[in-house]
Amino acid sequence: DLHYPLRRQRQMCIRDSSISGVWDMNKENTKIEIKKNQDFYSGTVLSSDKLQAGALMLKDIKSVDGEWKGKLFSPKKKKWYDAVLEKKDEKLFVTIDAGFMSKTFEWTKG
Known about the structure:
Helix content: 10-25%
Number of helices: 1
Strand content: over 45%
């Protein structure tokens, strides 16, 4: 079937697009672009009032038991935190685990 590679590529794009794309952090005009790099996803700053464009903010993101898990960088603390990402419609909820506390950030598509 000559269309098999195209069909497979389309299916991969649909599956990969779940968290891929540009996300507005809703803080300091910061936009993060999440892309797949080999087996993991990562997110870098596209634009921001305070953060440097190209700075790595998310790393090692992968699907584990139906959840997106990885690391989120806190520029304020200069530290990586364990994170769980959950996409609902055009929103991405990013929950970090900081020891005894957790905090959830709501990002919007675009």
